[in-house]
UniProtKB/TrEMBL annotation:
The keyword Iron does not apply. Keywords: Signal. It comes from Alcanivorax borkumensis (strain ATCC 700651 / DSM 11573 / NCIMB 13689 / SK2). Residues 1-21 form the signal peptide. Coiled coil: none annotated. GO terms for biological process: cellular response to iron ion. Residues 41-293 form the Fe/B12 periplasmic-binding domain. SUPFAM superfamilies: Helical backbone' metal receptor. This is Fe3+-hydroxamate ABC transporter periplasmic binding protein. The keyword ATP-binding does not apply. It holds the Pfam family Peripla_BP_2.
Amino acid sequence: MRVLRWGLLLTLLAMFDTAMAAVCVTDDIQREVCLEKPASRIIALSPGATELLFAAGAGGQMVGAVSFSDYPPAAKKLPRVGSYKRLDLEAVLSLKPDLIVAWHSGNPLPQVERLQALGLPVYYSEPRRFEDVSTSLERFARLAGTQSVGLGAAEAFRSGIDALRERYADAAKVSVFYQVWKEPLMTVNGKHLISEAIQLCGGENVFADLPTLTPRISQESVLEKNPQAIVAGGMGEDDPGWLAPWRQFASLRAVKNDNLFFVAPSTLQRPTPQMLIGARALCRHLESARARH
């Protein structure tokens, strides 16, 4: 009888240890993602997800990423599993991941769903607000067992954004056109994270009411909106070339007051902690626009 009781106790302890090791989080499309233990072989299917995982302290557990995953520098050394638009499923499977972080609106869903069908845990990432960046850091840290790093990074990002929100809460409004691409000409609507950055700095996105997240627009529509400032990301980290063509429109308020601004795309076009750097730069630019009004 004593042996039986000891056997039962050991079984219960083993079950308790397993339960304690298991981790569950809710992803950005409200699916519960559970792992038997913290992930040790993670693949990210977007450059933004790669950056978030490193920021959450999980860089050491990453075994693969898609093309253009270039930050931090250590991310460049990860094996590639295709691009975010076209995955190399054989490369993914060969790396034997125990967690895949997918980009819900950017990755080819049939390919991601095939990975799910093969039994691989998939977390769908889709940060749309600043708070989503912080919660992503917290969730990734939990999935990777790196809470001490991830929770600190999340809090630092929240604090930085809150400080900007407080500083520019009463700032005079500046109408802004943000150019996300040149050919075709594209911008962002009011639901995009970049638009939240504009609002944070006391700006007003002139295309906020468009239904598509990153809509194509015409040059004529920008001239009609006549924004006080034009902000562009350009093709590289130090390439403000997209701003030059607007100078031909001398009557445009942004041109007349020399309010043509460049913000490095990696700091504003990826939903990662680097957005704090981009938001600070954007706020400085809009403050300059106010001074020239």
